[in-house]
Amino acid sequence: MSWLSLLILIPFATALAVVATPDTKWYARRWIALFGTGVVLALSLVMSVSYMQAVLDRGGDPSVLTISQLEFEQSIPWFKSMGIEYHVGVDGIAMAMIVLTAIIIFTGVLASWEVKDRSREFYAFLLVLVTGVFGVFISVDLFLFFLFYEVAVLPMYLLIGVWGTGRKEYSAMKLTLMLMVGSALVLVGMLALYHAAGSQTFDLNKLAMVDYPRDLQRWVFPCVFVGFGVLGALFPFHTWSPDGHASAPTAVSMLHAGVLMKLGGYGVLRVAVYLMPEGAKQWALFFLVLTTINIVYGAYAAIRQTDLKYFTAYSSVSHCGFVLFGLCSLNLMGFKGAVIQMFSHGIMTGLFFGLIGMVYGRSKTRDLTKMGGLSKRIPWLATSFYIAGLASLGLPGLSGFVAESTVFLGGFFGNRWVDATTMRVCTLLATSSIVVTAVYVLRGLSRVFQGPLTKPEFKQLRDATIPEKLCTGILVATLAVVGMYPPVLIDLIEHAILPIANRF
C-alpha cells in the first residue's frame, strides 16, 4: 500500500474509531483524535524527508523536470471505460500542502481539547474533512481530485451549523451555497477539458500534454479560476468567508482558513494555470486587477472591524489575495511566492484563530472595544498573538516576510503578456497593504492586551493550558523555522514549480 493511501485511511479510520467510542468515554475521543492526527503528522514529516532525498538522488537538470515525476505514486484502474483511475502521487508543492494540513489538524485537535458537546460527531466530521483535504493534495486523476474536493467542503456546513456561534445557520448556508456554485464552475471546466482531450482520461499528466485550442481556453480558464477562486476568497466572491469564520468553532476556523482556503489557490495552480497556459496569458491582466483589489480591500476592511474573528477573517481575505496575485504574475518567482504564501498563511491564520478561540473561551467576548490589559493575566497567549501579528505584517525572521517579499518580486519582474507599467502599479498597490496591515494588527493587539484591565472579571483569567501551549508552540515554531531558514520550504517546492513556469 502506498504511503499516500495511508494519509487518507488513517484519518478516516480515526473517525470511525471516534464514532465507535461509548458515550461514557467521551474524554477518550480527544485522545483517539490526537493519536490519529499525530500519526499523520509524523508520517507527513517522514515523507517530506524521503521526498527530498529522492529529488537529490534523481539529480539531473531540474529545469527539464516534468510534473509526471512524482513520488510515492500509485495507480489502480477504477472506471476503465471513462479513463478514471485511483491515481495518487506527490510533487514538492503537494508535499508542502500535506505537511501544512497535518500540522493544522494536529494543533486543531489540541485547540478543541475541551469540546464536550456531541464530541463524537464533532471529531468525526473534522477528520472526514481532513481526509478530503489530503485526498485533494495527493490526487493525480482530475475526477478523483474533484471527488475529494467535495468531501473536504461539505462537512463544513454541519461543523458550523451545529457547533458554531452567532448566526451559524445563515453562515453555514451561505458558505455552502457559494462554494457549491464554485464547484459547479470547476465541474464544467473539468468536463470541458476531458471532452476536448477525447474523453479518454482524467489524468492530469496526460491532460497537460493536450494542446487545447485557444478559443476553448478563453472560456474554460475563467470558469476554473473563478470556481476555485471562490474558495480562495477571490474578490468579489469572498463574502462567505468572514461570516463563516465568525461563526465557526475554533478548530473549524483553523482548518477553514489554514487549509481549506488553500485548496482554492492549489486548484488554480494545478488545474487552471498548468493545464491552460494560453488562457492564463489572455486573462492575466483581468485577474491581476481583481487580486490587487482583494489585497487592498481586505486590508482596509480589517481596519473597520471590532470583532476579533471578523478582524482576522478580512485579514485572511487580503493575505489569500497574495496567493492569487502571485499566480497571476505568470513567472517562476510569483509561483514560488504563491506556494510559500499558502504555507505561511496557513500556519499564521491557524495560529490566529486558535488563539482567538482560547481568548474568547476565557473572556467570553470577541469585541475589541470591551477588551484590554489581558497580557497581565495571559502572557503566553498574548505573546503568541503578537508573534502571529508580526508574521502577518511581514516582519523579517518570520515566514510572512519570505512569502510576501517573494510574491512582490514576482509581480515586479512581470511577464510578457501584461504591460510592465500596469504590473508594477498593481504590485506597488499590493505592497502598500503592508502598511495598512501594520496599522490594524498593532492597533488591534494593543487594544486587547495593553493598558489596564477593562473588566474586574478579567483578573480571574488563567493562562494557556498544556494542550494550548503545545498547540501554539508548534505553530509559532513553524513560523520561525520557515522565516529564519526558508530553504527548508523552498528546496521542497522548487523542483515542482519549475515545470509549471516552463510552460510560460
Automatic annotation (TrEMBL):
Pfam families: Proton_antipo_M. GO terms for molecular function: NADH dehydrogenase (ubiquinone) activity; NADH dehydrogenase activity; ubiquinone binding. Residues 139-422 form the NADH:quinone oxidoreductase/Mrp antiporter transmembrane domain. The chain crosses the membrane at residues 6-24, 31-52, 92-110, 122-140, 146-165, 177-197, 219-238, 259-277, 283-303, 310-332, 338-360, 380-402, 422-442. GO terms for biological process: ATP synthesis coupled electron transport; electron transport coupled proton transport. Coiled coil: none annotated. It comes from the Bacteria. Keywords: Membrane, Oxidoreductase, Transmembrane, Transmembrane helix. It is found in: Endomembrane system; Membrane. Its EC number is 1.6.5.-. GO terms for cellular component: endomembrane system; membrane. It is a multi-pass membrane protein. NCBIfam families: NDH_I_M. Belongs to the complex I subunit 4 family. This is NAD(P)H-quinone oxidoreductase chain 4 1.
